[in-house]
Amino acid sequence: xxxxxxLNRYLLLMAQEHLExxxxxxxxxxxxxxxxxxxxxxxxxxxPFWILSIxxxxxxxxxxxxxxxxxxxxxxWGHGKSPxxxxxxxxxxxxxxxxxxxxxxxTYKIKIHTFNKTLTQEEKVKRIDALEFLPFEGKVNLxxxxxxxxxxxxxxxxxxxxxxxxxxxYFGRWIADGQRELIESYSVKKRHFIGNTSMDxxxxxxxxxxxxxxxxxxxxxxxxxxxxxxxxSAHFGAYVYGTDIDYNTVHGLGKASRKNQKWRGPDENIRAxxxxxxxxxYYLDVLVSDASKPSWRKGTYFDAIIxxxxxxxxxxxxxxxxxxxxxxxxxxCPESHVPVSLxxxxxxxxxxxxxxxAETLVLGGRLxxxxxxxxxxxxxxxxxxHPCLKLISNCEQKLSSHTSRRLITMEKNRDQYSHLLSDQxxxxxxxxxxxxxxxxxxxxxxxxxxxxxxx
Length: 455
Description:
Layout: E1 8-14, H1 19-32, E2 49-54, H2 57-64, E3 70-80, H3 83-92, H4 95-102, E4 107-115, H5 121-129, E5 139-140, E6 147-154, E7 168-177, H6 181-185, H7 201-210, E8 218-221, H8 228-235, E9 239-244, H9 247-251, H10 270-276, E10 283-288, E11 302-307, E12 318-321, E13 340-343, H11 346-360, E14 361-374, E15 389-398, E16 403-412, H12 434-454
Catalytic activity: guanosine(10) in tRNA + S-adenosyl-L-methionine = N(2)-methylguanosine(10) in tRNA + S-adenosyl-L-homocysteine + H(+)
Subcellular location: Cytoplasm
Protein name: tRNA (guanine(10)-N(2))-methyltransferase TRMT11
């Protein structure tokens, strides 16, 4: 596919983790900022080098203000499979596009970046000297240059078979870095209030980006837990709200999840987490509520619903109810009544979640959630669907040799609400036995590990 001549070409240097999540994140963010994903590459696979066509440098900079999957972006001036091809490509790049960054009053620096190979300083200098044909008129400044240029060499993905010469060589002007530092600065290890299943910071930001969360949005999490997903959404300027069935978690009570700490402190709660990062102004509220019985008036309230439902492994799947038949004529329970906790099947949970999203999301709003699957039995048909929601992406994260969870992103594309009928959830009944299958695999693995030691 040929790239439109009116668009500038950019090189994205991607991080080498959460590989399946990278493309949906970049596509979502480009869409959010008024761009469209256009590329000459047919596949992205595991390569860290992506060539994109983007309408403007402003959109490229906005993209990098949000992404945690990309390290850096460069305006691509040349590309080749050998030094000779690169130099030929650079000589064809329009001089008028180079001049603003190479004039005599400017300062610059050239960096060498290699993937899967380490070069000596002498080799790096040799590569820089070979670029002397470029019309650089400014002065070199290694500490605080106005413009940074990079030669990026790709030596493939196999660390055991590193080729003598690179597969691809790129040259470009550095534009901006991504938000990789958020993964460390928002690390759960430093978080004020955590639980057994608090979401990893990097994945929380990826989920917010898949959900196209932006300033002044209202983002809701119906299985809020300790609020990790609210923190990520609030960082991007959204107002956040959540519910959970667990009274102790919502109020920050009970046993602590941290090692060497028996009970939670008086100020360990979701609001304190947002306060820790200077985001308290975005906190709307968190309520004790049953996701199977949403207490909402009909209407569209949320720009995004981002959530991690319990799978029944480290957190139980529960809803309120009673095994006993309720006598006819009794509509309300007495105030002293404490609801009984029942098992909440995963198929019912996703059935309720999709119906809730279809009813309460604004048009174009997104639902982002995790779906646990037993890998040997998984097919794409097992992903829940809804007539009002369009599937945007489906990314896998391995949990074990036989289980994984899939990050599902859906977008509301129909304004007229249509309710999913209960019999339409039958294809997803297999999710109900996820817990048993998960632990059966664990049991088999332990038995396999213990067998050699017994012999």
